[in-house]
Amino acid sequence: MSDFRPAIGLEVHAELQTQSKMFCACPVVDSTSAQPNSAVCEVCTGMPGALPVINQRAVEFAVRVALALESTLAPTSLFARKNYFYPDLPKGYQISQYEFPLAQGGRLDVPLDGGHKTVRIRRVHLEEDTGKLVHQEGASLIDYNRSGVPLLEIVSEPDLESVEQVREYAITLRRLLRYLEVNSGDMEKGVIRFEANVSVRPVGRDALGTRTEVKNLNSFRSMLRAVTFEIDRQSSLLTAGQPVLQQTLGWDERNSVTLPQRGKEEAHDYRYFPEPDLPPLVLDPAWIEQVRRSLPELPAARLGRFRQAYGLSPSQARLLTEERASADYFEAACSAAPDVPPSEVANWISGELFSLLNEGGLPIEACPLPPPTLAAVLVLHQAGRINLPTAKQLLAEVFRQGGDPAQLVEQRGLAQLSDPEAIDRLVIEVELAHPAQVAQYIEGKKGIEHWLFGQVMRAASGKADPHLVQQRLQHRLAELEKNRPPS
Q1: What residues are paired with 124 via a beta bridge?
Q2: Hey, what domains does the chain have and what are their CATH numbers?
Q3: Which of 13, 1, 3 has the alpha carbon at shortest distance from 213?
Q4: Rounded to whole angstroms, how far apart are CA atoms 37 and 388?
Q5: Which residues, including other chains, have CB under 8 Å from residue 214's CB and lie 6 or more apart?
Q6: What is the pLDDT of residues 47-64, one digit of tens each?
Q7: Average pLDDT over residues 399-415
Q8: What is this structure's pTM?
Q9: Tell me: the pLDDT tens digits for 277-311?
Q10: What pLDDT shows up at residue 114?
């Protein structure tokens, strides 16, 4: 067991899904595919004399997040200039919030094995994103399409004590942002980025150790590897009697190490001062309540309701509430098929439907199969009109080609064969066609029954009621054994 305890806080930077940028009318474009520097103007490139104007939609999205985190919104918040010089910052400063942020305090409950952990939120504030550096062929190019995109920073207290807790916190927060529809959560496009503040201290000591900040971690994998490395590095230093330096670090993905970038800045290093071109941001209490009423049911509440109202297992509820669109789809399908048990609806969605989506590389939002059509297939199966293999084939067909399930069953003669006399005739046909296998069964090779079952189903073109086939086949085999001549 380690002699040191980690204390980790995360700063999460989430781009907000607005149509225009934070302080200008430039469109927000996909920075991974749009033509470089095609969505820029005088404001977001820092031209002299250009004046910023606050994006109300971005403020609304930020308020939604703050309310969901139970943070305390400031009636009045201020934007400030955060001064530092870097090629991707065209003005030489970033418009952000510091001394008077949009919201402070709050909490996020993180599910863990056997319980949950409450992580305290320190602050939630708005700022603008920077440009993007592209390094190629020994040169560095700058794309300012991302410069000025609304960015929400969510800072936690150093309450996380393991890499596992860091992972679950990040996953839970990403899920929340997607439920609120303020961020796509697309890690590959860099719309969520992490910075980890890591320190370790001897077991039994309450005071936090010297922290380092690991910047610009663009994936869960990078974040977890960087945090793991930094915990081990600091623990090794302290074990050897060496100090941990307060630094800003970068993560070297290729070599899997953190590398010093500069001494860790304090607030005074950025020379914050109020943004003179923006008035204070004043929130109307009535407008805040309007935003509060518009909040959707949040993931944790929905998971609990799915377990209680629908009787789903913990794993079913977790899987279906992972994405808001999946949860919406499930509830719509249940409404369209009230006589089908919700657990069966859940199994079909998490099994057959998710498999078809994965094959097509489609997210649930782009599912070509409407919930009522899935429900129609399940109703046909529930009523005994089609058997399970036919239901799966029918679902795949209407997923790929569309159509009305009930009409397809009638047009193609897919209805389940449930007539005992007809099935008895098929059993006799198989018996007469395969006397050697029937003889093996009678002589004690009982496993051959499964093969004979398959032959009867094949003779029925897969449309027979499997339970009835098994029952009638067993009945016939029992008769043959009973009437077996003495040896």
Answers
A1: 103, 154
A2: 4-291 (no CATH), 297-412 (no CATH), 420-482 (1.10.10)
A3: 13
A4: 55
A5: 195, 196, 198, 226, 227, 230, 249, 250, 251, 258
A6: 999 999 999 999 999 999
A7: 85
A8: 0.83
A9: 999 999 999 999 999 999 999 999 999 999 999 99
A10: 77
Among residues 146, 139, 228, 251, which one has the least CA distance to residue 189?
A: 146
N-to-C CA span, the chain: 71
The predicted pLDDT at position 268 comes to 57
In residues, how long is the chain? 487
Mean of pLDDT over the chain: 90
Sign of the dihedral defined by the CA atoms of residues 278, 284, 289, 294, in that order: negative
The token pair at 20 is 């225009």
Q: Is residue 357 within 8 Å of residue 365, measured between CB atoms?
A: no
pLDDT digits (tens, 9 = 90+) for 126-138: 999 999 988 888 8
135's enclosing H/E stretch is strand 132-136
d(CA 304, CA 289): 25
Q: Is 335 helix (H, G, I), strand (E, B) or coil?
A: helix
| Pairwise pLDDT comparison (177 vs 466), residue with the higher score | 177
For residues 276 and 373, what is the distance between their CA atoms, to the nearest angstrom? 57
Query: Which tokens in the block code for residue 137?
Result: 């062929």
Burial class (CB in 10 A: 0-12, 13-18, 19+), 278: middle
Task: Give the residue-averaged pLDDT of 391-400.
Answer: 93
What lies within 8 Å, CB to CB, of 221 at 6+ separation is none
Which positions ≥6 away from 372 have C-beta within 8 Å?
A: 332, 333, 336
CA–CA dist 216, 228 (Å, integer): 16
Whose tokens are 């094959």? That residue is 359
Q: Which two tokens stand for residue 46?
A: 């820092």
What type of residue sits at position 126?
A: L
> How far does Cα 108 stand from its chain's mean position?
16
C-alpha distances out from residue 463 to 91, 219, 387, 395, Å? 70, 48, 6, 15
**pLDDT category of residue 1 using cuts at 50, 70 and 90:** very low
| Residue closest to 244 by CA, chosen among 268, 225, 260 | 260
Closest CA to 10 of 230, 217, 234: 217
79, 104, 166, 357, 409 from 119: Cα distances, Å: 26, 14, 10, 34, 53
Residue 384 clears pLDDT 90, i.e. is over it: no
